[in-house]
Design brief:
The protein is mainly β. It has 2 helices and 19 strands. It has an 18-stranded antiparallel β-barrel. The protein is globular, with a radius of gyration of 23 Å. The two termini are 32 Å apart.
């Protein structure tokens, strides 16, 4: 029975890709063409933009020690068709459906969904899910060659590099936000973004026991940029949860970020980032929070290849007085063990030192390779948590279509004082229209 369903799903995905790429040609040899009831409306709708993406992934995750009794494995398929109407008087509408299917034998845990919770297996947060992932009304207006855009509805949001607010493009359910967002260009290469976020849709799906959190959250970002040189962003995130279970993560965060690359010529550049943020308790949070965030990255770039050394500090003094990022996906390592800023293993907070190398491997037909090594300590007491090695390969099948990608991702964690040894690996194929 499972094989029949798997074959049907594969057939559906192949068919969806085919009909999205190949223009529909209807030959009406036996029947006379029928005039649409509204020729103007049909002609206008045909000018809209169809989008489509699909990704099949097989992911395995193994962790040593209790309570884990075996390896988790998850074959999943994501389909995400969407449509955007053409603009009328500056207004347009976009809608996207996101469907995730389990395509074969699987055994993995999603702790927040009772029907998919397997306590003896590590967590892979790719639930079965069918939902409206995005649906919004957008209005765009030009004022003195400066663009003003207002977006209202369910949408994907990101603040700078996503450390404090973002969706997850790696998980099959990306997540989204019910929000009102304003983007505007300003003189002298400045731009400004404001968003009010009302609800948060997480990667573990709508059936999760932690539900769809209601928030009164304000996001502000003022940015200045100079092409091929520098970008400076001054930002704020005021996160105020409305459900008691979430009160302890209501915080206000203010930060300054400067990053490149700084290009010397067509071949060489300097890759750099410097960022500082202060986080304090806010709104419904009953605890005192006074935590710092530091990020520094530096290294050379050459013909698409980059090598950089990095340092990230997520401050922490106790279980309640530490930096939190509940609106962001995992950031430190691809094993996703550090999805939260830890307070365990004898320490609090997280200090991550890392080396990152990435670029095209020319003798492998331009496959993009990435290699990252992390060394983790706590902020408080400087306890050594462990080390992690991540690697990835991504290949665009250009002979068929530049939109088709095949890839592999691997993460290996060696434990010292936090968690246990772990291995997470994935193979995938994706197509985006």
């Amino acid at each position: 029975m499972k094989l029949k369903w798997a074959s049907r799903i594969v057939a559906l995905s192949v068919g969806a890709i085919f009909w999205s790429v190949v223009p529909l040609q209807v030959a009406a040899q036996d029947q006379a063409p029928q005039e649409p009831t509204s020729p103007w409306l049909w002609s206008w709708l045909k000018e809209g933009k169809i989008s489509f993406s699909t990704r099949f992934r097989f992911e395995g995750f193994e962790r040593e020690g209790a309570p884990f009794t075996g390896t988790a494995y998850a074959p999943t398929l994501r389909l995400a068709p969407g449509y955007e109407t053409p603009a009328f008087q500056g207004f347009s509408v976009f809608a996207q459906v996101e469907a995730v299917f389990v395509t074969g034998p699987a055994n993995y845990s999603i702790p927040t969904i009772p029907s998919q919770n397997r306590p003896g297996r590590p967590a892979i947060l790719d639930p079965r899910n069918v939902d409206l992932s995005q649906g919004y009304l957008r209005w765009t207006h030009d004022i003195s060659n400066k663009k003003l855009t207002l977006t209202l509805g369910r949408q994907e949001l990101a603040l700078n590099d996503g450390r404090f607010l973002s969706i997850s493009t790696w998980r099959q359910v990306h997540g989204s936000f019910d929000a009102a967002r304003l983007d505007t260009d300003l003189p002298l290469n400045f731009c400004f973004t404001y968003a009010f976020i009302n609800r948060v849709y997480r990667v573990d799906g709508d059936e999760a026991t932690n539900g769809i959190p209601l928030t009164h959250t304000h996001m502000l970002n003022m940015a200045w940029s100079k092409s091929d040189r520098m970008k400076v962003a001054l930002y704020g995130l005021l996160l105020d949860y409305r459900a008691p279970a979430e009160f302890a993560t209501s915080t206000q965060t203010y930060g300054l970020r400067v990053n490149g690359p700084y290009k010397f010529d067509d071949d060489w550049s300097l890759v750099y980032t410097a960022e500082y943020a202060k986080q304090m308790n806010y709104g419904t949070n009953p605890n005192r929070v006074d935590a710092n965030y530091y990020l520094g990255e530096l290294g050379p770039g050459w013909r698409g290849f980059t090598f950089k050394a990095g340092y990230a500090l997520l401050g922490g003094r106790s279980l309640t007085d530490k930096l939190s990022t509940p609106l962001a996906p995992p950031f430190n390592g691809w094993t996703d063990l550090f999805v939260n800023n830890p307070s365990a293993g004898g320490g609090n907070g997280l200090e991550a030192r890392y080396l990152n190398a990435s670029g095209p491997i020319r003798f492998l037909d331009g496959i993009i390779g990435t290699l990252i090594f992390y060394d983790y300590h706590s902020d408080n007491l400087h306890i050594h948590y462990g080390k992690e090695l991540d690697s990835a390969l991504a290949y665009k099948v250009k002979r068929v279509s530049n939109r088709w990608e095949i890839g592999w991702r691997f993460g290996r964690y060696w434990s010292d004082r936090l968690f246990t040894n772990a291995i997470r690996t994935s193979v995938y194929t994706s197509f985006t229209l």
